[in-house]
Design a protein that fits this description.
single chain, mainly alpha, 3 helices, 0% strand
Length: 81
């Protein structure tokens, strides 16, 4: 396997792991967003631009979910003080 294939394997594996564990912490949602961005880069580098575009959209969606969950988490922390 070449370096690009290893990079793609890492990106997709990180996406799977972060998605499976994201209920544990809002930080894992951010990890999922970053992994989606890496998957997008992989798609474009490989020449599969539809994959790259879809992964970029997933990265934006996940980033928005992270921002929302982070706000809720901060609000809950403020209420406990």
């Amino acid at each position: 396997m070449d370096a690009l294939t290893w990079f793609g394997l890492f990106a997709v594996s990180a996406m799977l792991l972060a998605y499976a564990l994201e209920e544990r912490s809002h930080w894992l949602v951010l990890c999922f967003a970053i992994a989606c961005a890496l998957g997008s880069v992989y798609g474009f580098l490989q020449g599969a631009w539809p994959f790259g575009v879809v992964e970029a959209v997933w990265a934006v969606v996940a980033l928005r979910r992270w921002l929302a969950r982070r706000r809720v988490s901060q609000d809950c922390g403020e209420a406990l003080k």
